[in-house]
Amino acid sequence: MAEAEDIFLRAKQRTFTGLTEDEQKEWRGPFCFIQAADPQLGLMKTWREGDCDGGGDEWTDEVQLTQQAVEAVNKLSPRPKFMVLCGDLVHAMPSTQYREGQERDLKVALRGTDPSIPLVFVSGNHDLGNTPTPETVAQFCNTWGDDYFSFWVGGVLCLVLNSQLFFDASACPDLRDAQEAWLEGQLQRASQGPGVTPKHILVFQHIPLYLKTPDEEDDYFNLQTATRQSLLGRFKRAGVKAVFSGHYHRNAGGFHNGLDMVVSSAIGCQLGEDTHGVRVVVVTADQVIHRYHSLEQLSGRGMDEDLRKLLQA
After folding, report:
1. Is 133 exposed, middle or buried (CB count within 10 Å of its CB: 0-12, 13-18, 19+)?
2. How many other CB atoms are there within 10 angstroms of residue 78's CB atom?
3. Model pTM?
4. Using alpha carbons only, how large is the chain's radius of gyration in Å?
5. DSSP output for 166-189
6. How far apart are CA 49 and CA 45, in angstroms?
7. What angle do CA 292, 297, 300 make, to 5 degrees?
8. Taking every annotated instance into account, which residue ranges of this chain make up the domain Calcineurin-like phosphoesterase (predicted)?
């Protein structure tokens, strides 16, 4: 159990196997990682029954799918540098009936992750509430780790953001302002120094900036236009390569002005025509290449051969 618990301790401390933070700032060649989203324990039954607000009393399906994802990722060679879960870890909102059980069972499912593959947790609207409060943010941080932070891996700077503070921070404006100040400092240092210049800058958040185009109408599944355009401009100026998100329970996204907006479907409940899966991301010196793999495919054949070859360069 000590080793299993260490998975979550390392997630909170953001420590990566065998290297110091300064060593992680050095480019050491191509690598891969896994982006997953929305295991959302409890949603599948409630979606089938049309009671997404009041249900959530069963989550066996999501536990099995999460275990399948973990087993498939563990078999990959070379091993991913990390696996990031981009929000909505569970379906039950903070302080509701099934929250504790869903979080407990998700941790049990994730404990099978190989210790050499660190886990990174991103907060979603179901993790914090649609209108987060200081209390719900603190609960998330206590259970899964900070709601926003940065880490380096293989010469790449990764920024994890709390997108709910962009969506509705009316109950916690001080937390929104703190993240804004921190983010601005991170982007300035990454683009202007002092310090090491990252090979790439990647952002992870739950809510996409947009689903298909930057000028699309505001929707439950994207960020509001003013916030979206502001972030797009700031990310572009800083040289951000890609933004990875979930929330939509379908694959979507687009490429605009050199910035890749990646929207990945779910480990758990599917709201479109995609299958349960995760995204394999390969990072080379010049590119960030990614492809969604179904859990069945990843379990049976591993990552696509052309992606594997990029890792051998």
Report:
1. middle
2. 12
3. 0.96
4. 18
5. HH--TT-HHHHHHHHHHHHHHHHH
6. 6
7. 145
8. 71-250
